[in-house]
Amino acid sequence: MICVFTPIVIASYLIWKYEGFKNKETCKEVTQQERAWFLYGDEAWMPCIKGMHPFWLLAFRIISFCLLLAAGVADVTTHGTDLFFYYTQWTLTLVTFYFAFGSLLSAYGCFRQHKTCDLRPDREYCLPLTNDNNTSQQAKNHFLLTAAFWGYVFQIIFQMTAGAVMLTDSVYWIVIVPFLTIVGYEMGFLTVVVHSLNLALLLGDTALNSLRFTWFRISYFLLWTAFYVLFEWILHAFVATWWPYPFLDLSVKFAPLWYFIVALLHVPCYGFFLFVVKLKYYILARWFPESYRSLR
User: Which residues form a coiled coil (predicted)?
Assistant: First the structure.
């Protein structure tokens, strides 16, 4: 239990310390911390290359959503709803929701760009959404925070999804397949797809988007996994049913060690995606210094 509740405490502390919630007591001033950690509205739908139209990111997200939804539906149809006892299915649902949400934000971004930009060959600029002369500073700050809200939520989902996908696929291919046997779980085509397609598509989206990635939001990833474990514990406390993963059963020998190992895996899994994002912006800065969209 220590391996579950300790990460919950750590995650709660990180959210309390670094998130911007406690800084929003007033809209009179947007602090530097809010500017640093709040996602600006267009980062949710703008590609990382300035010359790339947001439509391409929209198209990729729609295609990814359709592929993941089809894989999820086919998997549940074939193996039944018991799949939702598995962390894999939770992660697949999360990443499918990520692409659905991202598609909506990208569609909004394309619509807004179409409405606010004159894209004629001889004129390429964006009209301001507000008139600075007639807008008070308080209203401007309120608009900034309001416009950033859904993009801010989307960034949290992105970072939580990235960690969950890495944990799901790495545990499956590195731990479960070589060392464990799960009753009634066959390694067929759909199983391979749901343990690889999610990572491939998320890496593709990461390569295209302009989202940032911060260390402290590993807290949401920790809470996501902890919530799954608590769900399994509560379920087995009231219902006599099977464990989706053998090491979740606390009566199994070395179960605490398994819990500890999986808890530690959260750090490299999340760190991998942090490295990917850092590497992407490093390459863009070196190869496309004038055309890439740098983080503000």
Answer: none
DSSP classification of residue 39: P
Angle at 13 between CA 296 and CA 267, to 5 degrees: 70
Token pair belonging to 58: 């929209």
Record the tokens describing residue 192, joined without a space.
């391979």
- 95-127 pLDDT, tens per residue? 999 999 999 999 988 887 766 654 444 444 354
Q: What angle do CA 264, 11, 239 make, to 5 degrees?
A: 75
Long-range own/partner contacts, residues 250-259 (CB < 8 A, 24 or more apart): 256/3, 259/3, 259/4
| Cβ atoms of 195 and 28 closer than 8 Å | no
Q: What is the pTM of this model?
A: 0.85
Residue of 73, 128, 75, 69 whose CA lies nearest to 103: 69
- Domain assignment present for 295: no
Q: Find the domain containing 263 and state its range.
A: 2-287
Q: Which of 16, 42, 55, 27 shows the shortest CA–CA distance to 148?
A: 42
The amino acid that residue 97 corresponds to is F
Closest Cα to residue 42, out of 291, 252, 293? 293
Q: How far does Cα 86 stand from its chain's mean position?
A: 19
Q: How far apart are CA 283 and CA 279, in angstroms?
A: 6
Give residues with Cβ within 8 angstroms of 151, minimum separation 6: 39, 40, 41, 42, 43, 44, 105
Q: How many Cβ atoms are within 10 Å of 151's Cβ, its own excluded?
A: 21
206-225 pLDDT, tens digit each? 999 999 899 999 999 999 99
Whether 88 contacts 194, CB under 8 Å = yes
The answer for residues whose C-beta is within 8 angstroms of residue 161's C-beta and 6 or more apart is: 91, 94, 95, 98, 202
E strand map for the chain: 117-118, 125-126
- Up-side HSE of residue 155: CA atoms within 13 Å toward CB? 23
For residues 73 and 40, give the distance between their C-alpha atoms in angstroms, rounded to a whole number: 34
